[in-house]
Amino acid sequence: MKQVLSLVLVGLIVSGVGSAFAQTQDSYDYNSEFTWGINKNSAGGLIGGFVFKKARKLNNNMLETFGLEIMNVKHPQEVRHSSFDTGNFFIFGKSNYLYAFRFQYGRDFILFSKAPQQGVEIKAVFAAGPSLGIVAPYYIEVPVDGGPPFSPFSRGEQYDPTNPNHAYSEIYGTGNLFEGIGDSKIQLGTNLKAAINFELGFLKSQVTGFEVGVLVDSYFKKVEIMPTAENKAIFPTVFFTMFYGSRK
After folding, report:
1. In this model, does residue 15 exceed pLDDT 50?
2. Rounded Cα–Cα distance for residues 51 and 180 (Å)
3. Where are the domains of the chain?
4. Which of 102, 119, 177, 211 has a CA that sits 20 to 30 A from residue 113's CA?
């Protein structure tokens, strides 16, 4: 009986050592990762913009991150309307686009780690950095001397609320894409982000998941997007980002 108990004890010890070794071999260890994602936020449209992030591990619980976000920031009062004459859509009262390029440096803190092929890795995300705002003219298509839509008698112009030719009933639609981009202006600012990151990937070399959080974009002066509405220099948003990437 003692021999049987001894064999069982030895078996349990060997089994425990083997299990610990297997866990070590299967640990979800990595040194760096690169991800990109599609962002939806409260200051953007159907797609708010795109996110890119490079991260490297400083220790088992923390990563150093370098990020870039490219966003189309909208005014809260933007509403799409359709032209009486053409049915094409335009945003009445909008004079400028705001494209935000946000450069970020931060830390990701690993709250819960995951096994290689199961579970969820959860991180607390904090980042901040400078913002570069591209303020580009918003063009509308308007008639020239009562001409028909989209003919030599119509042209694209930046919306001006003081121009009688830019009345609601006179607008045929939005101007051509990137029209007037050469007249863009630069506005500088800063951004601050806090979020929770959920990584759901099933492979060691791939990253898939989503991130939810809040971000504040602050410029050194007001950005005039809609001249007849209240314009601000600070844009607080909540966001949701689906991301994908690789790690090694």
Report:
1. no
2. 26
3. 1-30, 31-247
4. 102
